[in-house]
Amino acid sequence: MQITFVLVLLAAAMLFFITGWLRYDITALGVLLALLASNTLTIEEGLAGFSNPAVITVIAVLIFSRAVFLTGMTDFLKKGLQKHSDRPALLILSISALAALISAFFNNIGATAMLLPLTVGICHKKSIPPSKALIPLAFGSLMGGMLTLIGTPPNLLISSFMLEYTGIQLNMFDFLLVGGLFTAAGLLLLSFSGNFLLPDRGASRPAAERFEIGKYLTELRLKEEFPYLGESLKQVEGHLGEEVEIINLVRESRINPLQLLRHRARPGDILLVKIEPDELEKIKNIKGLEILPEDTEKGERVEEGEMLEAVVLPDSPLVGLSTKNKSIQEEAVKVLAVSRRSSIFARRLEKLRFKGGDVLLLRGQPEMLDSFLKEKSCLPLAERELHLTSYRELFKVMIIFISCLLLVTLEILPPATGFLLGSFLTVVTGIITPRQAYQAVDWPVVLLIAAMLPMGTAMEKTGAAAWIVETALSRPELSSPPLILLAVIIITMVLSNIINNAATIVLMAPLVHEMARGMAVSPAPLLMGAAFAASAAFLTPIAHQSNALVLEPGNYRFTDYFKAGLPLSLLAVIIFWLTVPLVWPF
Predict the structure, then answer these.
(1) Counting Cβ atoms within 10 Å, is residue 321 exposed (0-12), middle (13-18) or buried (19+)?
(2) Which residues of 212-328 form beta strands (DSSP E)?
(3) Which residue has the higher pLDDT, 348 or 535?
(4) Cβ burial, residue 121 (10 Å; 0-12/13-18/19+)
């Protein structure tokens, strides 16, 4: 009975992970509560995930990554990237290799975020389409996560499972041989095939001009002095410019969308429009026309200052808020418009809640924009010199990080202790504030890992894992350890392109362990194969936050990831299948 309950619960969790009907952290918490309420697990077993060293290490590395990001390392990296910007293939190789190097020691989302504006700026200067460079940037960060123990949460989770199942303590650079071989081959493949596989969405404009992305949604209010009152909205649309599209009208009476453009303009009408940023700058001077998002509750307007495009990062405090939120309305920087490629807008901007990957059109004074970007975890798309802190702070954080790295590498301290100490020091030395440290942690991912780890315990305790493995091993074609390894790699890779890679590892590890027991072989190669495959999430924009982060700025479509990622995925399967058993024998 318990086996059936756990298997049904596992199937339900997979369904919710894949469909996204509930947030993955809420799904994980629901699974944990079900296991506790059914007495499948004791309270100690159920809450053990929250004290798992892998969870603590993930938190510490995320804080470290934010500290490095806030020190202004982008200025330091910019010079190195510009040296290779004359040759597109070499530029792509340099960008993806640098992303891999950074993500080997810091958060891979942070590596993508750090290099995104620099990559866009260099592409602008050299008239290279950003669509040729941004997917390599994201993929490079994913490959870099395979290089070290702390490169990505799946590595830390597998380390925990390896210690539990085999007694083997993985060290900092135990992933380097296999991960390094694939990363080197993958970077070369990506840099030289990218010109053929990646889309060309038009030549990039100079740095002084805007980056080519989708149109923005904004709102325009018509006042009594508007010169085109009485004309149809179709005519008004023509007066506003070719790049302006009226998509909705806010008026007291309900408007039939099919008859929208036949209605005549009245004072007080609010037009929801899709518009290019340069057109917005032009029409703001039309008499009797207000750009609503510029207005605060007090009626104040931001008439002067720069306009800037910025990407909302997944961990931004803006996520889930709208322009109607009081904390946003009180900002000196105003959100003029929002662009989101994944959906068509047809509702008021104040009802639109921001998501990671949204591109905002901002207006404000330069110093206020810098402060807004820093506090709200947004990245500028235009090339700007953002001196968030001094190089002295960068030197301090790197000294702390290298010291902790040595303590962990020399096995003086375990990873959880060593990096927790380092993140503590970044706060007490004033490199980042406690608030910034809390904001740095991707708490939904932490909750996902901590809440789903007990599922592995439940699968083993009830015999559900053994039942699945016995069923699988009864098939003659899966009786060979190398074939089992191949199946594990492919299944893990497919799952990690659909659901969170940490959740994939938590679900796969107990099954892998039981498979190894059933064949009387070491589980180490199967566990490591799953670890590497979980990071090879190259096929979809939803596979990883790094992939999603470049979707809008790169003007990509869903199929662009598949075209560029399929050769890389096939290469990963071959390399992992052939090399993992050489390093970790059966």
Answers:
(1) middle
(2) 216-222, 245-250, 270-275, 289-291, 306-312
(3) 535
(4) buried
Per residue, the 3-state secondary structure of 130-192, as one string, reads HHHCHHHHHHHHHHHCCCCCCCCHHHHHHHHHHHHHHCCCCCCCCCHHHHHHHHHHHHHHHHH
Distance, CA of 116 to CA of 379 (rounded, Å):
8
- Structural domain containing residue 170: 2-202+400-583
Report the pLDDT averaged over residues 371-395: 66
Instruction: Using alpha carbons only, give the angle 323, 325, 329 rounded to the nearest 5 degrees.
Output: 70
Name residue 129's amino acid: P
pLDDT for 211-240, tens place per residue?
345 577 788 888 888 888 888 888 888 888
Is 426 part of any domain?
A: yes
Helix (H), strand (E) at residue 363: strand 359-364
In a domain, 387, yes or no: no
Collapsing DSSP to helix, strand or coil, 462 comes out as helix
CB atoms within 10 A of CB 558: 12
> Number of C-alpha atoms within 13 angstroms, CB side, residue 366?
7
181 and 89 in a common domain: yes
Looking at the structure, tell me whether residues 340 and 414 fall in a common domain: no
| Contact predicate 313/348, CB 8 Å | no
**Residue 335: in which H helix or E strand, if any?**
strand 334-339
Q: Is residue 241 within 8 Å of 376, Cβ to Cβ?
A: no
| 437: exposed, middle or buried (Cβ count in 10 Å: 0-12, 13-18, 19+) | buried
3-state SS assignment for residue 271: strand
φ/ψ of residue 295, rounded to 5: -80, 135
Contacts of 119 (CB under 8 A, 6+ apart): 81, 95, 130, 133, 134, 137
pTM for the full model?
0.65
555 and 412 together in one domain: yes
DSSP-assigned letters across all residues of 187-243: HHHHHHHHHHHS---SPPPPTTSPP--PPEEEEEEE-TT-TTTTSBHHHHHHHH-TT
For 11-42, how does the pLDDT look when each residue is reduced to its tens digit (9 = 90+)?
888 788 777 678 778 888 998 999 999 999 89
DSSP string, 51-71: G-HHHHHHHHHHHHHHHHHHT
Structure tokens at 82: 């510009």
